[in-house]
Amino acid sequence: MKLTHLNEKNNPKMVDVGEKEITKRIAIASGEIHMKKETKKAILEEKTKKGAVLQTAIIAAIMGSKKTSELIPMCHNILIDGVDIDIEEIENGFKIIATAKTTSKTGIEMEALTAVSVGLLTIYDMAKAIDREMVLTDIKLEYKSGGKSGEFKRK
After folding, report:
1. How far from chain centre, in Å, is Cα 93?
2. Which residues act catalytically here (predicted)?
3. Is 46 among the annotated ligand-binding positions?
4. What DSSP element (H or E) covers 96?
5. Tell me, what's the pLDDT at 149?
6. Does the annotation list 34 as a binding residue?
7. Model pTM greater than 0.90?
8. Confidence class of residue 8 from pLDDT cuts 50, 70 and 90?
9. Does residue 73 form part of some domain?
10. Which of 81, 84, 125, 138 is catalytic?
11. Which of 6, 45, 123, 126 has the highest CB neighbour number within 10 Å of its CB?
């Protein structure tokens, strides 16, 4: 198996996508943050010192998706057609789901994964004063479509 991010001298390189076909690409990623019941309640009731945690996490997630190529060394800077962030309550915290779309020569999975990660980190940051035991977990790609590798759907 040839690694695509290494050149013939085994040095890092950015993959050349110049010859790839432009296609509509969609990626959905998710992740969870687990916390104490009191922390979740404070977030839902907007009684943390830092304000509206979930709304801020949504904005942060969108911003994070837009900064992906600045954070991940070999990631291409792509035009993002849209990003939608959903936050669901789970038993002991919250789940963030990010859907990212592009019409490009390369995928948008990293942008969706980065959105989830930044959103979860924002929740942690805004609630850490009341709960330093929060845990970020299960950050994963749920679905992707478009491009040469086609569709992926987590089982």
Report:
1. 18
2. 125
3. no
4. strand 93-104
5. 86
6. no
7. yes
8. confident
9. yes
10. 125
11. 123
Whether residue 14 is annotated as binding a ligand: the answer is no
Domain assignment present for 14: no
152-153 β-sheet, strand order = 82-90, 93-104, 23-34, 135-145, 152-153
What CATH number is associated with residue 109? 3.30.70.640
Total domains in the fold of the chain: 1
The residue range of the domain holding 100 is 23-146
pLDDT at 148 over 90: no
Q: Answer yes or no: 81 catalytic.
A: no
3-state secondary structure at position 12: strand
Instruction: Assess contact for 146 and 107: CB atoms under 8 A.
Output: yes
Pairwise CA distance, residues 100 & 62, whole Å = 9
Q: Is 16 within the bounds of a domain? A: no
Burial of 9 (0-12, 13-18, 19+ CB in 10 A): exposed
Mean pLDDT computed over every residue of the chain? 93
Residue 17 lies in a domain: no
Quote the pLDDT of residue 142. 98
